Structures are given as structure tokens and as C-alpha cells.
Amino acid sequence: MDKTFEELVKLFNTNKFDKIEKDTQGIRFLKLRSISRKDTITEIANQNNLSIDKKKSDDIFKMVFEDSSITETLIDNYILEKYTIERDERKNNNDGAKEFISNLNNLKKEIINESIKNPNELKVWLYENQGEMRFDASNRFFLILVNETDLSQSWKLKRNIKFLREHINYHLDTLEDDLDRLKTKFYWKKDNETYHCKSDILFIKFRENN
To answer: Which of 40, 101, 137, 175 could pair with 35 as two cysteines, CB 3.0-4.6 Å apart?
Structure first.
């Protein structure tokens, strides 16, 4: 049984898709419904020379649905073309996102390597940028955990107690008796005071086996 456009719309709005699919024009309706946005339904109408001047998208949808010159093959080809274009756009966007993430990770690694070469700058920065509520100028031992395989997973290294203990113990065992190296001076802008303390910093790197 061929239902009218209005009847199919009513079925669609009440989620009675099984009844739509059983109708002889149901699949055609659903295909066109999938491209019924103003821009797409207007485009397919224009491609088939329908007069759509100042018509609403729902009216254009109905015109395209009821126009027998717009065959199932034309509809299928149009949908395939749109799908292909959108797929390629998504791929390009994904490639761009991957490149951005790669560049960001490389920048992070450069910052980490620079901090390893100049640890005093990072120690001062950590003191000066601590939270106001937890401000403390006491001596500190900073641990910087770095997952070189995936920097975003670096925080998980704190779970590996054995791995951390081995590196910390080795660092402490080989620590030179040069206390001047531990001297740290930083400025706290909240109270306009300069503080002096002792601090050390250890970078612990981890690389996953492929």
C-alpha cells in the first residue's frame, strides 16, 4: 500500500519505522529523510530542476519525494557522493588532528629535555606557581614522571612503586654532597617576598616495549 507523504511523516514522528519499511515508498522516504537538511535537499532539488523558490525544507522534501523523475538510482548516487565527501573530510580532519597532536608531543618533549638540562628553572617555576592555599617554602624533592611512549599516560607511572623506588634510591645513593647545588631562591608574588630553601628534582623516564 502506498502511503502519502504526510502519512509517512506521521509514522516517522511516532517512531513507527517498521510500518514505514513495509510501505512501498517507505525506503524512498527514509533515504530522502536522511538528506533532508535544507542544504542537501535543496541541492538535490536544484540538480533535478525543481522550482523551489522561497520554499521551506519540509516542502522541498515533499516535492523531491513525490517527483517520479527523481529515481531511486539518483537518490542512491547522491547519498553515496555525499557520504564519500564527508568521509574524505573526516579523514583530512583526522590527519590534521594527528599532525597537531604529534607536533604538540614533540614540543612537550623539547620542553622536558630543556628542563633536564636546566632543572633549576623548573624548580623555581614549581615553587612560584604552587596553589595559594597550599603555599609552602619548605625544602622539596620534586619527581617528574615521563612516559616517553605516550606523554598523556605519564601520570600512571606513580602506580609503579617498585619502578619509582629503584630510580629514587639510585638517585639518592649517587647524590653528591654538594648542598650548594640544592639551594633554591624564588619570589612569591602574593606577598612580594623572596624565599630561600633547598630542593632537588628527579626526572624518571619510562618507555614501553614494542
So the answer is: 40
